[in-house]
Amino acid sequence: MFENSRESRTDLSEYGEFGLIDHLTGNFGITKEHTLKGIGDDAAVLDFKDEKVVVTTDLLVEGVHFDLSYMPLKHLGYKAVMVNLSDVFAMNAIPRQITVSIAVSNRFPVEALEEFYAGIELAAKLYKIDVVGGDTSSSTSGMMISVTALGAVKEEDVVYRSGAKPNDLLVVTGDLGAAYMGLQILEREKQVFNVNPNSQPDLDPYAYLIERQLKPEARQDIPPLFKALDLKPTSMIDISDGLSSETLHLCKNSKTGVNLYEEKIPLDPSVISVCEEFQLDSTTIALSGGEDYELLFTVDQGDFEKIKANPNFTVIGHMTEEAEGMHLVTRANQKIPLIARGWNAMKKED
Amino acid sequence: MFENSRESRTDLSEYGEFGLIDHLTGNFGITKEHTLKGIGDDAAVLDFKDEKVVVTTDLLVEGVHFDLSYMPLKHLGYKAVMVNLSDVFAMNAIPRQITVSIAVSNRFPVEALEEFYAGIELAAKLYKIDVVGGDTSSSTSGMMISVTALGAVKEEDVVYRSGAKPNDLLVVTGDLGAAYMGLQILEREKQVFNVNPNSQPDLDPYAYLIERQLKPEARQDIPPLFKALDLKPTSMIDISDGLSSETLHLCKNSKTGVNLYEEKIPLDPSVISVCEEFQLDSTTIALSGGEDYELLFTVDQGDFEKIKANPNFTVIGHMTEEAEGMHLVTRANQKIPLIARGWNAMKKED
Question: Which among A157, A188, A215 is the end of a domain?
């Protein structure tokens, strides 16, 4: 993944308020086609031509959303961008710009913020977006990150959560549950480290899970793939809180029910084996783990031919009439109510 | 100003994560002309038609930017919006939408957040903007607010910080220093209260100063006034950090010098009298106090006729060649270097 950490330590106070922003964002260029003015004025000026603008924002709070004892700051910067871009892709839009604001206590040296912004910069480069603004502030304790992403989409291409119809197929990209199990691995290693700081864990078997937790990728390949397939989903959402919660959002917004088939949920083999190791039910993890940043969408049954052979997509169920309710169909062919148990809820209850 | 505080107290945990957002933002409507989709999907969808998009964002951190012991939450919500709208007006643009994210510890009851959002809602109504998104999170301590504002402007109307030329007139709206002196009054009353909680201060003589601190208004009247006067400033910035700091920004970005005349700086009589009471120099306060949210701009000398009789505007100086440097011309007709001493710096040094 990333190389990390530097030796030197420069106090934040060595830069003035404006000096620090200039220092951290000075090498962020802009693409003149979509961004007329980036950082350095009261506001950025953007050109969306004849496209509509999508905007989304997310907060990441230390101690709530991340733990710096195992989250390197460069990864954190990268992930803070992904969380937002995933929402842009979930509208079937293309991200164009982000703003990044952070509040940090002065226990963070300048080098730490440089690492954080290196992650932002890498994400911006790989996802072809401009960093056009932001704010930095001291905080009385801990670190808080606020990212806002703007994207562009033609009005006829926008996909909302609300367009699913009964009999539409429910489809998901990639596989689920890996990011949550990566978090369990990291939490376990933290406990081990607290007991024995000299332990040298072998994390190789868990590389995929840890990467899904620390360096998730938003599905920038999917909106162009839909274009190439001449496919417009009827509804779409990204999976941040867990498959069950997001499925219920689509149902609620579209006024439909759903049958979701347990046996169809795509799981990486390492998720299955690590769930066994932790004595956790892999279906529960896939339904409620969250942080997958995959896309969940519905398509008309007539579009099945366009997706059936594509390895990016797994059909996991179908929408029903609202009155039929929202159900998980188990491997034993039992229908049980689908309930929302996002990772927040899991944390509280477990 | 606002009525404030309620008796009841509902714990944040009584609402789920989504329930809380719905509860707080449920009555925010949208203007269909500029906002196709507001709160309730992965992202909002906005229509800027043939106009360019300006975007700006600001953080407000408890203990750094505000003190809840004298800042009512409804005012705080209102001010968080103003801080951002002021940046939009400084681009000569019209604000259209905002997103509002807050992180709060669970010492805040739901009623406190309702007060905060009531201030947001009032600002949105009075400034004709839509609240189109945001995020709420718990925090391990204190409150943090992140607002992003989007505005619209025709490309030919955008005013940057960088367009001033030598001999352009330097002009400011309104009067300066009042918000800073309002803060001094509030800080003094807090000290008095700490010593004697039963004291009943008479704040009437300070009403203007306190209102400028607690309920600032961004200058939404100015961009339309420029239109009506057929006037386009050559450069513009809003005054958040103080007149000296913002003047230096215009000079630096425009590659000019400046002569700023002390005797021309517009001061409210109450600023002068309270500066005497506190034994502070009113010029220093106007130059470095900040939080005025007035607009500072430059115009070609040929446009003087358009502004000279307008009570909104005060000509306070003129730009010079860069090599002449940046100076304050005192009442004694001495030229002294203009230095940036924003309120952050003042706080540290005083």
Answer: A157
pLDDT in tens, A117-145: 999 999 999 999 999 999 989 888 889 99
Q: Are residues B111 and B197 in the same domain?
A: no
Domain annotation covers residue B136: yes
Over chain B (350 residues), the average pLDDT of each successive run of 10 is 56 71 77 86 92 96 91 96 98 96 90 93 95 90 94 96 97 98 94 84 90 97 98 98 96 98 97 96 95 98 95 98 97 93 42
CA distance A250 to B127: 33
Share of chain A above pLDDT 70, in %: 94
Q: Does residue B109 share a domain with residue B65?
A: yes
Tell me which chain A residue has its CA closest to the CA of residue B90. Answer: A42
* Predicted pLDDT of residue A17: 59
d(CA B38, CA B36): 7
SS3 B218: coil
Minimal CA separation from B114 to chain A, in Å: 19
User: Does A199 lie in the same domain as A146?
Assistant: no
Q: Tell me: the pLDDT tens digits for A320-332?
A: 999 999 999 999 9
pLDDT at A328: 97
Q: Which residues of A are annotated as a binding site for ATP?
A: 117, 134-135, 161, 240
Is residue A235 helix, strand or coil?
strand
Give chain B's domain count.
Answer: 2
**Predicted pLDDT of residue B7:** 53
Do B115 and B184 lie in one domain? The reply is no
User: In angstroms, what separates the C-alpha of A203 from chain B's closest C-alpha?
Assistant: 30
Identify whether A32 is part of a domain.
yes
Task: Copy the structure tokens of residue B222.
Answer: 């100015």
Q: Is the dihedral of CA B16, B22, B25, B26 positive or negative?
A: negative
Q: What is the mean pLDDT of chain B?
A: 91
The string over A208-235, giving b where at least 16 C-beta atoms fall within 10 Å of a residue's C-beta and e elsewhere, is bbbbbbbbbbbbbebbebbeeeebbbbb
Is residue A292 domain-shared with residue A227, that is, in the same domain? yes
Which of B120, B154, B188 corresponds to the end of one domain? B154
Q: Is the pLDDT of residue A46 over 70?
A: yes
Q: Does B35 touch chain A (CB under 8 A)?
A: no
> Looking at residue A21, what is its pLDDT?
73
CATH assignment of the domain containing B204: 3.90.650.10
Domain residues for A51?
12-157
Given this model, what pLDDT does residue B203 score?
A: 85
* Alpha-carbon distances, residue B327 vs B236, B254, B262 (angstroms): 19, 16, 10
A1 domain residue, yes or no = no
* Residue A303 DSSP class: G
Contact list in A for residue B101 (CB cut-off 8 A) is: 57-59, 146
**Nearest Cβ partner for B43 among A37, A41, A54:** A54
